[in-house]
Specification:
Blueprint: E1 2-5, E2 9-15, E3 26-33, E4 36-38, E5 46-47, H1 49-61, H2 75-87, H3 94-104, E6 108-109, E7 121-128, E8 131-137, E9 153-158, H4 159-179
Antiparallel strand pairs: 1-2, 2-3, 3-4, 3-5, 6-7, 7-8, 8-9
Helix pairs in contact: 1-4, 2-3
């Protein structure tokens, strides 16, 4: 199932063909942002619920995906500011970490959204009322002690396409989950 416009923003997902009720929604998934594709579609039986919840949440937050602290920063600096605020291992107090997580958590994208995004380090922003931007560092092994100097990805899409695909995915997920409930076995 391809939900959205892959030349702008789309979510591609499939339910594993052998799923029978009762079951959780296991599937494969990736996203398309123009010529950029993120997600391992060859990884079978990935958890779908985390992505479902986050797409639902981000579709509602789409007008809150900018922070004035980003003004004047290049994309790599924005990405690293967000990631360090949420996941940084530093000398901040617990209160500071919680404050930073509340301030910057809404920009986190694809992290812990399911096995298809394992190792992903992405940030989502809306620098203009009509535009969305995903900042992404390419995949590295989860257990890697250091980040390899891979190319940094900046992908753009329209806010309308992001919201439409996200809400379309949420609707699709709800329909599949309903079909897989025990009473429908």
């Amino acid at each position: 199932m391809l939900i959205g416009d892959p030349t702008d923003f789309a979510i591609e997902a499939m339910v594993e063909p052998d799923l029978k009720a009762p079951s959780a929604v296991w599937r494969r998934m990736r996203i398309h942002l123009g010529n950029v594709t993120l997600g391992d579609f060859d990884d079978p039986y990935c958890a779908l619920y985390p992505a479902y919840g986050h797409f639902k949440w981000h579709a509602k937050l789409n007008d809150q995906l900018w922070n004035d602290s980003f003004n004047g920063m290049i994309p790599e600096e924005i990405h690293d500011t967000v990631r360090e605020a949420i996941y940084g291992d530093d000398e901040r107090t617990t209160d500071q970490i919680q404050r930073d997580s509340l301030e910057y958590g809404r920009f986190d994208f694809l992290t812990n959204w399911g096995e298809q995004f394992d190792g992903y380090s992405s940030v989502i922003l809306s620098p203009k009322p009509t535009d969305m931007m995903v900042l992404h560092r390419p995949f590295v092994a989860v257990d890697s002690p250091r980040r390899l100097p891979d190319a940094f990805v900046v992908a753009h899409c329209s806010r309308a396409a992001f919201v439409t695909a996200s809400l379309g995915f949420v609707k699709w997920f709800d329909e599949v989950a309903e079909r897989l409930l025990p009473r429908n076995a």
